[in-house]
Design brief:
The complex is a heterodimer of chains A (107) and B (121).
Chain A: E1 4-7, E2 10-13, E3 19-25, E4 33-38, E5 45-49, E6 53-54, E7 62-67, E8 70-75, E9 85-90, E10 102-106
Parallel strand pairs in A: 2-10
Antiparallel strand pairs in A: 1-3, 3-8, 4-5, 4-9, 5-6, 7-8, 9-10
Chain B: E1 5-6, E2 10-12, E3 18-23, E4 34-39, E5 45-51, E6 58-60, E7 68-73, E8 78-83, E9 92-99, E10 108-111, E11 115-119
The chains are: A mainly beta (107), B mainly beta (121).
Chain lengths: 107, 121
């Protein structure tokens, strides 16, 4: 199975801050990676697919990058509604595994 | 809200089975792979498997093979996931999710609201 490791596990930030989350795959997954946002008690929401493609309706302050084993999710200017948990998911091969999550908290 | 609608919460005894349904609402199911993902309390997301479009059958994660069955009723645009021989560690919220891009590599664009399955004696 491909292991997905996110860092940091938690980040404290203020509204307007730039936040970057990283995700590392245990083997080369090309660009087969997605990012999701999950609020407490809610289902995940797709933000980015194929490493860098913005899902329809997602604000442009979210961006993704990387390929191979190392990936990033950047929020350029944190908004109040962005405080949530973010998870990466590899779509390269089954079982399709997720990172453990990064909790973005209010500073 | 455009979202698959799942069946309600369940409480089951150890060793029992549970069936969760997921019905298309405002979106199309028939041409898409539908996946199941679960989340234990306070934990991460765990992929369980998928059912292919039309009647082309399922694919299960090895961890759940022999214990999970995924089916679909095309006449009602409903997908089902049945998990048998439940143990306490099967307590989780179970989500259905649509692979919206059909690239053979899944990206989940629509998720159901989740169904809490509690295993308790």
């Amino acid at each position: 199975d491909i292991q997905m490791t996110q860092s940091p596990s938690s980040v404290s930030a203020s509204v307007g801050d730039r936040v970057t989350i990283t995700c590392r795959a245990s083997q080369d997954i090309s660009n087969w990676l997605a990012w999701y946002q999950q609020r407490p008690g809610k289902a995940p929401k797709l933000l980015i697919y194929a490493a860098s493609n913005l899902q329809n309706g997602v604000p442009s302050r979210f961006s993704g990058g990387g390929s191979g084993t190392d990936f990033t999710l950047t929020i350029s200017s944190l908004q109040p509604e962005d405080f949530a948990t973010y998870r990466c998911q590899q779509a390269n091969s089954p079982p399709y595994t997720f990172g453990q999550g990064t909790n973005v908290e209010i500073k | 809200q455009v979202q698959p609608v799942q069946s309600g919460a369940e409480v089951k005894k150890p060793g029992a089975s549970v069936r969760v349904s997921c019905k298309a609402s405002g979106i199309t199911f028939s041409d898409y792979y539908i996946h199941w993902v679960r989340q234990a309390p306070g934990q991460g997301l765990e992929w369980m498997g998928y059912i292919r479009p039309k009647s082309r059958g399922p694919y299960y994660a090895q961890k759940f093979q022999g214990r999970v069955t995924m089916t679909r009723d095309t006449s009602t645009s409903t997908v089902y996931m049945e998990l048998s021989s439940l143990g306490y560690d099967d307590t989780a919220v179970y989500y259905c999710a649509r692979d919206g891009y059909n690239l053979g590599r899944p990206y989940f664009d629509y998720w159901g609201q989740g169904t809490l399955v509690t295993v308790s004696s």
